[in-house]
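Supplementary Text 2. Reproducibility record for the structural model of the 228-residue chain.

All settings were left at their defaults, and a single model was retained for analysis rather than an ensemble. We include the record here because the model underlies the residue-level annotations in Supplementary Table 4.
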Amino acid sequence: MMVRHKFDRSLLPERPNLEFEHVLWKKGFRFVAGVDEAGRGALAGPVAVGAVVLPCDVADLLEQLDGVRDSKVMNPSDRAYWAEVVKEVAVAWRVGFASSDEIDQLGILPATCLAAERAIASLQCSLEHLLVDYINLPDVDLPQTPLIKGDARSLSIAAASILAKTNRDALLVGLDETYPGYLFAKNKGYGTPEHRHAIDRLGPCDQHRKTFSPISDYFSLFPPEVKE
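Retained model, structure tokens:
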């Protein structure tokens, strides 16, 4: 079990940098992936995990990715712009998903690890080390450095957070057409008042996480019919 430690926010840099990447690159690790998730706290849709390998031999990498930040502090248009820049600059990148059903079956943390494993496995390079935003990936046989507030400290992790967020948001926008009434294009599956009101009015759909409150509360009141 991971022991959580308090982190002094005054130690955060003004923007994500390459401090951790440089340490690993100097040790001879060329393929270092930043890993981060999006959607862990949503009520509906999958959890997404991005994995990004930045080049170790580009002198002006910080300048090229000057606007990359933790995706949570960026607006949608900036995220969309910098997602494309990251894809152009990165040596490799991928986004993995774990569905709402897998989240219900496994739990959110194991499902997040599963999405990370899928992203990492699909990278077309020989990874040597992972920089992860404060989770351990027990089933990934690679050296890992978990970083508290990693998306605010490591440029690789911040880049991964942008790709996880933009790819998941795009998927939820698509689901909005299939499941009208839940406003997925607007709320991206998170528990906004409008989304919760839609659940009260329409009931959950098959994209909702049945083990998450208030979805679980709904099923305790209205259990699904058992088919013989």
